[in-house]
Write a structure and sequence with these properties.
Layout lengths: L2 H23 L4 H11 L5 H26 L4 H20 L10 H16 L15 H20 L4 H13 L3 H23 L7 H50 L4
């Protein structure tokens, strides 16, 4: 490892820790890690950035998923079915990543984000209580559709997937924010695994960066999941709003920048 590579890695490790913590607590850690990797690793191809980020992130997702599963009772039938659909969706998304520019999808995502933010902001009780409703067959169908769509987004575009999952689990299944966060970790693990199934054989993972970053992400996930369980739904709601606003600002800037 060269001196320059070592400096790059040491710069990325704190970002990976923060990403693991934020992903574990509410999702959206890619807003930190991915731009950081583009800035610190300018010679990397976009697919290498994505592959390295996904492998590093999957360590943290697995850790936070385990932490939540040990402390909470999750609707595993719904979550695993949604994860399977998300896996297929992510494979579809990442397979056309090279063929279709992701920029055409950004205006749609911006509109969805605005709706999501307005809805959450003007409903202070949104996600503060778990309805504890039994999972129905209709819920399973919704899980299949939502899993595929969000998986496709993660494979094709990426940033903010965890936040979208969090909102959808609260909105469509009436979970509280904490339970929705736990469920989102399982689905997010599936989408990352699907992307890696495409990117690893293509040689798009730089292991000398991904593995140390993954270890830092594990430590971050331990901290983030414990903070989420300790802080509760109101704390997660505030963090969710902050991250959603950050993602909206990022996408709007990327959309209008070419016109300036």
């Amino acid at each position: 490892m060269t001196h320059e590579t070592l400096i790059q890695l040491l710069t990325l490790l704190p970002l990976a820790f923060a990403t693991g913590a934020i992903n574990a607590a509410v999702g959206g850690g890619g807003l930190i890690q991915v731009p950081g990797m583009y800035a610190i690793l300018p010679s990397f191809l976009p697919a290498q950035i994505m592959g390295t980020d996904k492998l590093a992130s999957i360590f943290g997702h697995a850790t936070s998923m385990r932490q939540y599963a040990l402390k909470m009772s999750l609707p595993w039938r719904l979550v695993l079915l949604t994860s399977a659909a998300a896996f297929v969706g992510a494979l579809s998304g990442v397979s056309i990543m090279y063929l279709v520019p992701a920029t055409w999808m950004k205006p749609i995502v911006i509109v969805i984000l605005i709706v999501m933010l307005v809805y959450t902001w003007f409903k202070p009780q949104f996600g503060t209580q778990d309805a504890n409703k039994p999972i129905t067959r209709n819920d399973l169908y919704k899980g299949l559709v939502l899993g595929f769509v969000i998986g496709f987004y993660d494979g094709f575009v990426g940033p903010g997937t965890g936040s979208f999952l969090l909102f959808l689990f609260v909105r469509f299944f009436h979970f509280d924010f904490l339970k929705a966060t736990a469920c989102a970790k399982v689905v997010n693990f599936g989408t990352n695994f699907a992307a890696l199934a495409f990117l690893v054989p293509a040689g798009m993972v730089v292991y000398s960066f991904a593995i140390p970053m993954g270890i830092a992400g594990v430590l971050g996930a331990l901290v983030g999941s414990r903070l989420a369980m300790k802080g509760g739904n109101h704390w997660i709601r505030r963090l969710f709003l902050i991250l959603a606003v950050s993602l909206l600002a990022k996408l709007v800037w990327e959309t209008v920048r070419p016109w300036l």
